[in-house]
Fold each of these.
Amino acid sequence: MALKLYGTVSSDGTQRVQACLHEKEVDFEFISVNISAGEHKTPRFIARNPFGEVPALEDGDVTLFESRAITQYIANKYEGKGTDLIMKDPIQLAIQTVWMDTENQRFDQPFSKLIEAAIEGDRSGQDVRQYEKKLESVLDVYEQRLTESKYLAGDRFTLADLHHLPGMHFLRSTKAKGWFQGRPHVRAWAADILSRPAWVKVAAMSPW
Amino acid sequence: MAIKLYGATGSTASLRVRACLAEKDLDYEFVSVDMSNKEHKSPQFLSRNPFGQVPAFEDGDLKLFESRAITQYLAHTYADKGNDLIVKDPKKMAVVGVWIEVESQKFEPAGSKLAWELAIKPIFGMTTDDTVVEENEKKLEEVLDVYESRLSESKYLGGDSFTLADLHHLPVLKYLMGTKAKRLFDARPHVSVWAAEIQSRPAWVKAITA
């Protein structure tokens, strides 16, 4: 039985999981959830994700939610297939986990606010500026990191980079081109990871 | 000593790592970072944590930051020491992974803002922002409603054993239980039992008494 991914083309969480599935060359069925019809709040969907959000993944008898839990499950389950997304050496894996948590705790929150503002229309310029500033200071740290390391976790592409794909894609397509100015390593890293064939497939369906 | 934790009392993130070290029964040196003198922004500290925040961590030559990355490193590396904080079966561990993410993505944002407003600000003589409190109590209630449902079918968040998915909540829980936000937990019987249980763990008691 193939994996079932419940999501939408505009959800960054769904995009994150799709990128992972494509990298691992795993077949899956994409089931579009009708958000505007409130499908994500139906009891049937809540049984898959009690927070009533996309994505959710069904793999036979187990259903998972939270995109970053799903990607880790897939990366581990299909080890040896497609791209290696997890460092094997325990020390390198510990470092990979640092940067995965950095994406989760520092990059994601301001990015989510910016994407919300873009989708729902600018509520207040001041609100957005606050999050832009936060994101800029995170990118400053990334700039420093990427001068010492080709990818966030080390010398190869891993989930630490992959988790950033929806966010970096969004930043690159927004009108505020200032993101990468003065941050040549972030710019080069973004160009590199966004050109990966697995991501190009996902980006083709993305609304921005 | 091989393991060093650079932290501050009152830092929930530092406490998260201390809880984990206690569960794993590991010896370590706690190095207090002088936040009031901005030691966390010094070049020396920034080389340990480029975000200039506590905690930072060392195990021999390995330097890490981000409390949840440190706990995961400890749980896996010292799997055969102290209490189990992860599970071996891959599908069961995937479910634990889901609830680790839930704490990080849903509980922490609302919970830590409430802890800051209701518990920490008063200590420093700062004024609580009631609007922020109301907003985040609402958000936390939505999360706790999901927890109530989950804990009615599962003894712990990740499954039938205590794991990182539960442990990661302890520091913020500790602060919230000393404030009016406690009522949000008390109002939900399964959440209430779970919260009491995990806070009574000997390792946690040790971590907060040290």
Note: Chain A has two domains: 3-84, 90-196.
Amino acid sequence: MAVISIERMGLLSVVCVSLFFSSTFAVDRGNFKTCDQSAFCKRQRALKPGQSPYRALLETLELSDSRLTLQLINDNNKVHLLLELYRLQGNMTRVKINELKPLKPRFEVPDVLIAEPPTEPLSVLSKDDNGVVLSLGAENQRLIVSARPFRLDIMEGPEVLLSLNSRGLLAFEHLRLHKDTQAQADGAEVKESVDGDQQQDEGKKDEDGESEKEEDGLWEETFKSHTDTKPNGPTSISLDFSLPGVEHVYGIPEHADDLKLKTTDGGDPYRLYNLDVFQYELYNPMALYGSIPVMLAHNTQRTMGIFWLNAAETWVDISSNTAGKTVFGKMLDFVQGSSEKPQTDVRWISESGIIDVFIMLGPKPSKVFSQYASLTGTQSFPPLASLGYHQCRWNYNDQEDVKSVDQGFDQHDIPYDFIWLDIEHADGKRYFTWDPHKFPQPKEMLQGLMDKRRKMVSIVDPHIRVDSGYKIHNEITSKDFYVKNKDGKNYEGWCWPGNSGYPDFTKPEMRAWWASMFAYDQYEGSMENLFTWNDMNEPSVFNGPEVTMHKDALHGKWEHRDIHNIYGLYVQMATAEGQIQRSGGVERPFVLTRAFFAGSQRYGAVWTGDNAAEWDHLKISIPMCLSLGLVGVSFCGADVGGFFKNPSTELLVRWYQTGAYQPFFRAHAHLDTTRREPWLFGPENTALIREVIRQRYALLPYWYQLFYQAHKTGMPVMRPLWVDYPKDTATFTIDDEFLIGSDLLVHPVTEEGSRGVTAYLPGAEEVWYDVHTFQKHNGAQNLYIPVTLSSIPVFQRGGSIIPRKDRVRRSSTCMENDPYTLYVALSPKKFAEGELYIDDGHSFNYDTKKEFIHRSLTFANNALTSSNLCPDCNFLTSSWIEKVLILGASKPSKVLLKMDGKETPVDFEFDTSMSVLTLRKPGMNAGADWTLLLQ
Amino acid sequence: MTCLHLLLTLVFAVSLGTPVEIQRPRGVPLTKKQFYEEGKPFTCLDGSRTIPFDRVNDDYCDCKDGSDEPGTAACPNGSFHCTNAGYRPMFIPSSRINDGICDCCDTTDEYNSGAKCENTCKELGRKEREVLQKMAEITKEGFLLKQQLIEEAKKGREEKQGKVTDMQENKKQLEEKVEALRTVKEAAEQPEKEAKERHLKAWEEQKAAIRLEKDKAKMAEAFLELDDNSDGFVSVSELQSHAELDPDADGTLTETEVQGLMGGAAQVDTSTFESVWTNIKDKYHSEVSRKEPEEPAPVETPPDEVKEPAVDNDSEPYPEDDISEEDDEDEDDKDDYHEDDDKVRVNIEKELSFDFGPDAEFTYMYSQCYELSTSEYIYRLCPFNRALWGREKNRPENNKYLVMKYEHGTGCWQGPNRSTTVKLTCGKETVVTSTSEPSRCEYLMEFTTPAVCQEPANTEPSPHGHEEL
């Protein structure tokens, strides 16, 4: 939602207008820093691989049960660092590096890890002058600490899995006194350059000139009209990782780029710095709204992860020894048996804080997900309704408008669950209030929606209008909860309401107060079917450097520089907590956020921000959400239709078809676009959109079960193919199709005027059934699928059972007691299995009272059996099994239902052409034990 | 178990106070009862298959057309009939059966969902009757008004047509006379002074008569224009709207000044207007010409910059700052008005060329503007200024006189050109009742006028007309 703001701002600032008005539709790159324009990145990147100046002082080694400490020394400047090594439960290693004696504490990111990670004992296998060998437990894994230069290698058997500082790019800018201060203080000579600089001699040669030059970015930095005073001087850190045998790395969202990360040689590194980017460009490494500093490395043998726990501005360089090679060159290597192994080298650079890295050793993809989940938690289990369809627009104008859109869905018989209100709903952009003319009776409006069993989301942004007549502002002021500028006064910046303050969400007291504002008696006009959307929480500051907060602003004793990337997480955290509290801890929250960090998955959903109504934006929604899913955030979606500009009808229909098969399914549109509710494009297109939204609703039981699984295990809901087919190299770069769970393969049509798509069906042993025609296809092939405007290529994996609710209703809540249809897709071995999860759909009772049904469904030996996965669970449902479809079946002579010791015959039909057996109305309760026998 | 519910239900309806009991499957309308014969195999209404009768309404969808499950939500495309005794019967999608939401006022759609529905049919029926009655009254009165409008328009049109014809005729005669004179002149080989003078005098008299005729026509025209409320009188206030008549040219036309112009009368009719006309004719601007040719957008809203204040005063109403932008723009027209004889004719012809509806019932809106003030803006609608009759999407044969469209208005800040759709409904008064901006810079106005009132079909509307037994 950045555009108009800037233009409206233009009334107040002519400068802004000239900056932001651009005739072409693209980001104004000039507003955002390149690595060269970010002093620490430029400084760090100037360091080239080579001999590291760091040396491990083995004599300082101390080993307690599970913690090893060791001092490192930079031979150039004699600064000592402290290395801490931990072996963590679940096959992980944690590496921490900090200054041994910093001038003052350096920032360590709190509130991301769900607990202090449990450790396992480390033991020293051998030790000599050159290094130490440590055992990493049972799996023949060792950690080798080399002393001179300092280097860490993680080995399994004879294989090096991963090395740290193997290219000598560890660089730790220690805290120091400013030159002037320092001269007065002790007069000692300390070289003012990057600590890791190897080129000591050269450095000495032109020391005067160099230090003069470097002064610029060290203690002060100016970008455009903004000056960053740097009272702490240079504080950046860097470390390199080598991944032998790895050619594919993924993750580190958020970037509008392909799923497989590219090498960054010759360009900018991938940047992680939460920014409100107006009209972002695709296929580049620029920073966007959120940051998750987690990278996955994958090859046919192993999947590993690197979690760089740092919330400051971060850049990630990727290089590869095979990147430059042509396919022919690679083949030549293979034929000639080239000794050179493929290798990917990664380098992380952050502006401040400490080095705190978690190495997740997998080896399976699912293991890496559970490892990361054990550190930062899993996806929150969303209310079932939030998996339905969301109708949003900037803005639904007034109560009348909301009512007529709501009625529109009923008139056109299209289900939806949530209608959204953007910033115009509030009284003068004062969040927690309602515009008295447009929304004079919010409760009446919410009650109207509740009567239809539907819900609403209102936006609550973290910029607070500075206005002495505004309760929220006054309370924050009186409690002294605002972020401060470098001079200790309340930080103020421009955002939607004009001059705004920014609450300091890093303060627990502030978050507790914020949460209390969602109580029904505080947030006037709110009701239990009103949920929340946190936008602009990067935070967005229209007149700030790079449209965000000044780095020298203060959060207590820490600089904004230290905490920037986690600010948005805290906003969503406090908001979700508020929703939980208002229900007395009973109801699950639903909060959407634009900015995020590692751990944000615990608080709700994210979307990919202000995209555009263009085909490429539709395409990029897939890798963007896949990347997020890999690093814990399953509840991801893109604005259906595209936020900026008007989509063509074809694009809109295709976007609905794609969005319906992505986790968070919300249509949204900019204020300046024409209306685009699903029924405004003629009856044919209304029918197409209706059909796909209904498909979404039919699959809600499957989505819900997958979210339960994600919540319990950390498995992503929407996944790249390689997650389930890790040995199939053909899947490693696919990001125009994806899996939902393990059992649905989706290849959306994302090309204009498409007449066909080629989908890769993975798995040599697999068969896949077209979910619309039930036609069977073999795996491990590229399948050409002719398409029309109504086609959505979706396949169910043979060997799976998917429960659906095929009855059409107005909202997910209306479907609560509806019966299930089981889609049993048989594998070539006539086997299938699946799960069914049922609870009340909205409360924490599944967790606190074990009120849920979790059943295993297995088809084997011509019998379909439902058995209880949670015998001590306790939940009653009135849903029943109305139909069973068995795909790939042969015709039985008789079908019997065995239940409660009785056998009753079941009617069936058999479609010979597609080998589909339909069991008519077996009728058992969805929570019961039963077996269906085919004879 | 949910699936085992009543196959048949007893439906009670009330007719003439006598309860009648009719048995048919749940959700089936009386008109289709014959297809659902108890105990006999049921053939799907699309003929696709035949099933045992016990599979009708057994909560499992057997027919592709949904006809076997009119009383359950089993089929995605079924429809459920509620009798709604006391109100009117209706069909709802069968997906709304037992979904926890009360759809039928007789509560019959929620027989197994636990939803607590109350029978509201009587109340709804009563309200509907009230509304219908009110509507009927409005329609009736509106239709009468419409007849008047048609009558007036007819008269006005005839007058104007007559005027145009006259003017054309006069012009023609004049030309003929000139031609005749020239012929005479040329014929006279030896010019005789006396004869020449006689001829010239006759020519002058002829010209004066024509001028007087034209002046009268202009006067009649001006009277019609000035008489805003069409009451047959030009009042002080009506005249006051013409600032150009200001005798002392101080920029304001005071009431006293107007009274002076009107010879002290509060209002004048056509006959007495003559004296007033002498006072004002040299200054008077026709509204017809004032509207020509360049006008601001017919629907006026403040520019964007004001509409979306970045900082404050967002809820304050805006000054009515753009009501009369036309006033200074017509300097050019002033001169040629009195000179150009054809101008009046052209304007009348232009007016006559508009489509004022099948019976010219919209004529009275010509040159009129209608305003609506909201908390934020003043909206002004000037029909036939730039309006074109429009059609609603997807309803090609809809009565085209129910929608007006204004397109290609002034551009919006980073948005489309402004456009407005006006929906006309029957009402006694001609007023803009509401405006909205569903999409940015696309306005929707609701506008009532007697001109769209239809002749009441039935003097006694009966909501129970179709009530089922």
Note: DSSP finds 20 helices and 53 strands in chain A.
